[in-house]
Design a protein that fits this description.
The chain has seven helices and nine strands; from the N terminus they run βαββαβααβαβαβββα. By secondary structure, it is an alpha/beta fold. Strands 1, 2, 3, 4, 5, 6, 7, 8 and 9 form a nine-stranded mixed sheet that branches. The radius of gyration is 17 Å and the shape is globular. Bound molecules: guanosine-5'-triphosphate. The site of guanosine-5'-triphosphate has 24 residues, from helix 1. Guanosine-5'-triphosphate (GTP) binds next to helix 1.
Length: 235
């Protein structure tokens, strides 16, 4: 167990070329909806969803970054403090597949090696695929990443992606805590990107610079989480 009665918040960045389905994935996961309209993300959006992983309460904070290079300067700033990453490409867009390594580098430069997953979205459009299965699997192997084929439209494998990342993150966190229990200390200003105003928040940083935001229990909030989408909010 992590510290009892603490809730861990994990900042997850979702990155990849424009129109691969990043916003749709986050909307699907946090709100349970899918829209056919394409609305280009300007800069960064953010939604959250609480989940329970191995009996731990975890709050996933999902950062939706713009895929267009014109927004690179803005989005890079938001990678800082990220604790997990989803790299997305589309079944019908070869360029988005070819760009994956460079997206990974952009994130790594800012935050180092964090739990990361590779997602091929839009597999409902497999008839129109421009990427062979072996190619996608080869990429995952080269990058040493868990690989999911998903369809946000059909709600295939979306939950699994985020569950995997949360598990992987908690696993690393426990390893670090077990190896170096004395280095968990409180910081006050590192996580400026989290705009929560709760007085029950404490920020912690572990030895490798990964950030842990622990939210002390807020009875009102934890009691009304029966609907997993109920407490999603767009900031
Ligand atoms: N067929 C199909 N279409 C999808 C799927 N996921 C997303 N789309 C569509 O793809 C288009 C782009 O989706 P977005 O979620 O806006 O893409 P994005 O990656 O956030 O794009 P940027 O904001 O430009 O970075 C929209 O028209 C979505 O409806 C899917 O699984 N299958």
């Amino acid at each position: 167990m992590l510290e009892e009665d603490m809730e861990v918040a994990i900042k997850v960045v979702v990155v990849g070329n424009g129109a691969v389905g990043k916003s749709s994935m986050i909307q699907r996961y946090c709100k349970g909806v899918f829209t056919k309209d394409y609305k280009k993300t300007i800069g960064v959006d953010f939604l959250e969803r609480p989940i329970v992983v191995n009996d731990e309460e975890v709050r996933l904070m999902l950062w939706d970054t713009a895929g267009q290079e014109e927004f690179d300067a803005i989005t890079k700033a938001y990678y800082r403090g990220a604790q997990a990453c989803v790299l997305v490409f589309s079944t019908t867009d070869r360029e988005s597949y070819q760009a994956i390594s460079s997206w990974r580098e952009k994130v790594e430069v800012e935050v180092g090696d964090i739990p990361t997953v590779l997602v091929q979205n839009k597999i409902d459009l497999l008839d129109e695929t421009v990427i062979k299965n072996e190619e996608a699997e080869g990429l995952a192997k080269r990058l040493k990443l868990r690989f999911y084929r998903a369809s946000v439209k059909e709600d295939l494998n979306v939950t699994e992606v985020f569950k995997y990342l949360a598990e992987k993150y908690l696993q690393r966190l426990k390893q670090q805590t077990a190896e170096e229990p004395e280095v968990v200390h409180t910081t006050s200003n590192k996580m400026g990107v989290f705009t929560t105003t709760s007085t029950n928040v404490s920020h912690q940083s572990s030895s490798n610079g990964h950030e842990v935001i622990s939210l002390r229990p807020n009875k009102q909030r934890t009691k009304k989480t029966k609907n997993p989408f109920g407490s999603c909010s767009l900031l």
